Amino acid sequence: MKTLKDVISLKFKTSESEGVIFHGEGQQGDYITLELKKAKLVLNLNLGSNQLGSIYGHTSVMTGSLLDDHHWHSIIIERHGRNINLTLDRHMQHFRTNGEFDYLDLDYEITFGGMPFSGKPSSNSRKNFKGCMESINYNGNNITDLAKRKKLEPSNVGNLSFSCVEPHTVPVFFNATSYLEVPGRPSQDLFSVSFLFRTWNPNGLLVFSNFADDLGNVEIDITEGKVSVHINVTQVKKNRIDISS
Fold first, then answer.
1. What pLDDT does residue 1 have?
2. What does the alpha-carbon distance between residue 80 and residue 229 come to, in Å, rounded to a whole number?
3. What is the distance between the alpha carbons of residues 54 and 48, in angstroms, rounded to a whole number?
4. Of 208, 240, 200, 204, nearest to 223 (Cα)?
5. Residue 23 CA from chain centroid, whole number
6. Using CA atoms, how far apart are residues 132 and 164, in angstroms rounded to an integer?
7. Nearest CA to 22 among 106, 146, 145?
8. Which of 15, 86, 113, 121 is least surrounded by Cβ atoms within 10 Å, i.e. has the fewest?
9. How far apart are alpha carbons 93 and 75 in whole angstroms?
10. 8 Å CB contact between 134 and 10
11. Where are the domains of the chain?
């Protein structure tokens, strides 16, 4: 396919921070890749470069944040030559691609949810998308509907289910004054805690627990955007351990 205009749209939700949403490439060096990186949306696009190096077409644009929140997010990519409108959840970003070429020349298949292993270093370091997509539309083709009705030829549909499984986690929201207190486990010599959290606040107490028999305490907090663990032990000389990340 050699196109001057492209319109690509879809919705996705995921709890993963990394993953290729779709990818296409051509023998002329053209490519388009939309992926999640550190829970942000990244569009990589190249309408062509020349071998002399005087025309360098690679363009990369990043938008959004915290997109691994398992909520639906909508994407629309509208391209007319080198002019691109990238819309994420109704927030539009306009940019022009680098280089001098206007056509996107893709020789191979377009893949959604991952990219084929091409032997290039860029392909084996990227993770496949893990989550749900719906309303995939590529230049007027309803990809989701065609895939479900097995009307995409040729196509390789690997282990897809046409439903969206909800996660079994139950989130808890804390305001500035709320907290959750649970009973400890006396006469245990192991203290273990794990949790996921998300906050805009740079400071706050996450976990606090006293040890039994007045042996000390453990505190996990956020201080200026860094997570810190403080362990106080009363019966030894080196009675305080501080870990920050």
1. 81
2. 52
3. 11
4. 204
5. 15
6. 6
7. 106
8. 121
9. 11
10. yes
11. 1-154, 184-238
With respect to CATH, is domain 1-154 assigned 2.60.120.200? Answer: yes
Of 197, 167, 165, the closest CA to residue 180 belongs to: 197
User: Which residue bears the tokens 């995921």?
Assistant: 14
Q: Which structure tokens are listed for 64?
A: 């959004």
Tokens at residue 52, please?
Answer: 């002399």
User: Which residues contact residue 121 at a Cβ distance below 8 angstroms, ignoring those fewer than 6 apart?
Assistant: none
Give the amino acid at 22: F
Distance (Å, whole) CA 112 – CA 33: 10
Cβ neighbours, 10 Å, residue 109: 13
Per-residue pLDDT of the chain (245 residues; tens, 9 = 90+): 889 999 999 999 999 999 999 999 988 889 999 999 999 999 999 988 776 666 678 899 999 998 998 899 999 999 999 999 999 999 999 999 988 888 898 887 889 998 877 656 555 678 999 999 999 999 999 998 988 888 877 677 677 888 888 777 778 888 888 999 988 877 777 888 888 888 889 999 999 998 888 888 999 999 999 999 999 988 777 788 888 88
